[in-house]
Design a protein that fits this description.
Blueprint lengths: L1 E2 L6 H8 L8 H10 L1 E5 L4 E3 L7 E15 L5 E7 L4 E2 L1 H6 L6 E14 H10 L1 H27 L2 H16 L13 H8 L3 H13 L3 E4 L2 E4 L2 H7 L5
Antiparallel strand pairs: 1-2, 2-7, 3-7, 4-5, 4-6, 4-7, 8-9
Helix pairs in contact: 4-5, 6-7, 6-9, 7-8
């Protein structure tokens, strides 16, 4: 972890990433910029652990972080990937509870730490900011409910196809139609909720069927419609 000498300014970052901080006034931006601290984290670093008491929330300026829970057997279940403009750890601050998830850097990241008191003051003083934070919490709850339904009703093949489409929608494709997020096979399995061997086998099947192409961790999406149909996603 490395402290930044040059602190990213929230008003610029919020406009670039269309984050919920775009609703702040200049005075609130100044307050936030004064109280936050920013750090650089390398891939593999843990930001906070499940069950720990965290003293603030984190806004992502650059990079990608995975949010996950750990089962009794130590296996990770990835809940979501946070990208630039996203805020994490805020629910534990608002509920005054221990962290219910862990977070780990999967792509070198610049994080801005927002002390709990600063976040709470913004929630109390700015109704638009509060409403956006509430919408975000509801959105994440809805995604969690949808995931529970998928686990119960969809096959592993269907879930993997759906996850690939979600990754495309959230992180985009480069000029060669390659996903703009690099994941290990184990990380993919931890999103889908299955064994790594099953994901490896299914990815090979998808490649044979012309749905994707593989080059190490890179996944090229070749047939969006085909994956959408397999995932039973209604668009």
């Amino acid at each position: 972890m490395k402290n930044f000498q040059h602190i990213p300014q929230c008003e610029t970052c919020s406009l670039e990433n269309n984050s919920l901080f775009r609703h702040l006034s200049q005075e609130e931006f100044d307050h936030l910029n004064y109280h936050k601290t920013c750090y650089f984290h390398k891939r593999g670093e843990i930001i906070y652990h499940e069950g720990s008491r965290i003293s603030g929330s984190y806004c992502i300026n650059r990079g990608i972080i995975k949010i996950y829970k750990t089962g009794i057997d130590g296996k990770e279940q990835i809940i979501l990937f946070a990208k630039p403009g996203d805020i994490i750890g805020y629910r534990s601050i608002l509920s005054n509870e221990l962290a219910c998830t862990s977070s780990k850097v999967i792509e070198d990241t610049t994080l801005c730490f927002i002390p709990a008191d600063t976040l709470i003051s913004l929630v109390k003083s700015n109704p638009n900011f509060s409403m956006e934070l509430m919408k975000l919490a509801c959105k994440e709850l809805g995604e969690a409910n949808a995931y529970i339904t998928d686990i119960a009703q969809k096959t592993v093949r269907e879930r993997l196809a759906e996850i690939l489409i979600h990754l495309k929608d959230n992180f985009g494709l480069d000029q060669d139609n390659v996903l703009q997020i690099s994941l290990t096979r184990e990380e993919l399995a931890n999103i889908v909720g299955t064994a790594t061997e099953s994901v490896i086998r299914l990815l090979s099947e998808f490649k044979t069927d012309g749905l994707i192409d593989l080059n190490g961790r890179k996944i090229k999406i070749q047939d969006v419609q085909g994956l959408t149909k397999i995932g039973n996603m209604f668009r």
